[in-house]
């Protein structure tokens, strides 16, 4: 899926080639899954004769600001959407099929031609993108519901740390929540956490001061680096996890990064690449041990009750009582073991999770993100 760097590259493309130009001709595909709220004819009529004042972006959304009081043309690129200007080389997503030079391009949904001959098209092979007319987009949904954009409005460290302290979720699902941080997608989240040396399952509220600072720095650094590269993955630093993370579900030796093994698991329903040697899951709030102690106390209390209610015969209850105590001790021991699932079953759970991640990635190879030339 196009993430913040890819959408910013699309915005820059439109800004560079179409800003200030008048739309002379507009053609819209008859595709109600992609084009929302208006018919092709209505969209075409709304765009003809309008001047593109500029292109804007927040998170994974971008829009064309039109002159006057006209509504903006809002885009969400979905999983495979992209912008193309005729005759201008474009950066492709990782593993995407090579795009031809024909015009209009394959999979086009909207084609705009300006008065000076510049032609712009939005294409979407898998049709998960959205196009709509939206008045005052920044102050209306969906953009008004977005969280901070790490490039446009990254909060200061103190504010950011305070935001994390209120979150009980694991840090990766939190980063993917667009109402928290707009524009961060799967590959960007993995890269940020790898560079910050934070385990994807670490609870956000449990991050210490140094981890909060590292996460704050890497959110801006990773995204700014990708944006400066024009979302061209060939220009990403060679030390990035991005270049080695696409091995989930593939046969052969596990990929490595600087000598360290890359592993995969499901976190928040998303295939996640991480490096266990560097991204260690630190001890978190000791809620489970407290619960275990309470259970043990309750068990002891319950054990004491039947002892008081034993039959009046004093000699007979001795043997049953001894058996009961032994059984209760075994149960208490089992309860204590059950209260420590992390220590007892971490390896097995990781293995099971890795298997699930491999199957998921093998079944859905289109989840690979990023771009390359």
TrEMBL record:
Ranges annotated as biased composition (Basic and acidic residues): 289-298
GO molecular function: class I DNA-(apurinic or apyrimidinic site) endonuclease activity; damaged DNA binding; oxidized purine nucleobase lesion DNA N-glycosylase activity; zinc ion binding
Database matches in InterPro entries: FPG_cat, FPG_Glyclase, FPG_N, H2TH_FPG, Ribosomal_uS13-like_H2TH
UniProt keyword DNA-binding present: yes
Chain spans, region Disordered: 289-373
Keywords, ordered alphabetically: DNA damage, DNA repair, DNA-binding, Glycosidase, Hydrolase, Lyase, Multifunctional enzyme
GO biological process terms, semicolon-separated: base-excision repair
Entry similarity comment: Belongs to the FPG family.
Name this protein carries in UniProt: DNA glycosylase/AP lyase
Species per Swiss-Prot/TrEMBL record: Coccomyxa subellipsoidea (strain C-169) (Green microalga)
């Amino acid at each position: 899926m196009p993430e913040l760097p890819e959408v910013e590259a699309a915005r820059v493309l439109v800004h560079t080639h179409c800003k200030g130009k008048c739309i002379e001709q507009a053609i819209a595909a008859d595709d109600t899954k992609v084009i929302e709220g208006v018919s092709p004819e209505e969209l075409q009529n709304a765009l003809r004769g309008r001047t593109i004042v500029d292109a804007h972006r927040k998170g994974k959304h971008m829009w064309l600001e039109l002159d006057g009081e006209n509504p903006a043309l809002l885009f969400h690129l979905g999983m495979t959407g992209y912008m193309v200007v005729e005759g201008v080389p474009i950066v492709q997503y990782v593993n995407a099929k090579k795009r031809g030079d024909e015009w209009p391009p394959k999979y086009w949904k909207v084609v705009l031609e300006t008065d000076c001959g510049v032609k712009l098209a939005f294409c979407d092979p898998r049709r998960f993108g959205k196009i709509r007319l939206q008045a005052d987009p920044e102050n209306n949904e969906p953009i008004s519901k977005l969280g901070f954009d790490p490039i446009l409005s990254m909060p200061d460290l103190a504010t950011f740390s305070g935001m994390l302290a209120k979150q009980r979720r694991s840090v990766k699902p939190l980063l993917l929540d667009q109402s928290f941080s707009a524009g961060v997608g799967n590959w960007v989240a993995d890269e940020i956490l790898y560079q910050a040396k934070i385990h994807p399952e670490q609870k956000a509220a449990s991050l210490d001061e140094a981890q909060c600072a590292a996460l704050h720095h890497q959110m801006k650094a990773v995204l700014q680096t990708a944006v400066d590269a024009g979302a061209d993955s060939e220009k990403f630093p060679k030390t990035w996890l991005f270049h080695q993370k696409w091995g989930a579900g593939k046969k052969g030796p596990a990929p490595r990064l600087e000598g360290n093994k890359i592993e995969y698991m499901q976190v928040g329903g998303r295939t996640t690449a991480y490096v266990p040697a560097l991204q260690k899951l630190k001890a978190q709030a000791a809620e489970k041990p407290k619960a275990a102690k309470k259970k043990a106390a309750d068990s002891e209390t319950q054990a004491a009750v039947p002892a008081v209610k034993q039959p009046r015969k004093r000699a007979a209850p001795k043997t049953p009582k001894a058996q009961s105590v032994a059984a209760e001790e075994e149960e208490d021991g089992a309860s204590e073991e059950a209260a420590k699932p992390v220590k007892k079953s971490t390896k097995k759970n990781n293995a099971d999770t890795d298997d699930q991640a491999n199957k998921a990635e093998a079944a859905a190879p289109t989840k690979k993100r990023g771009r390359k030339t």
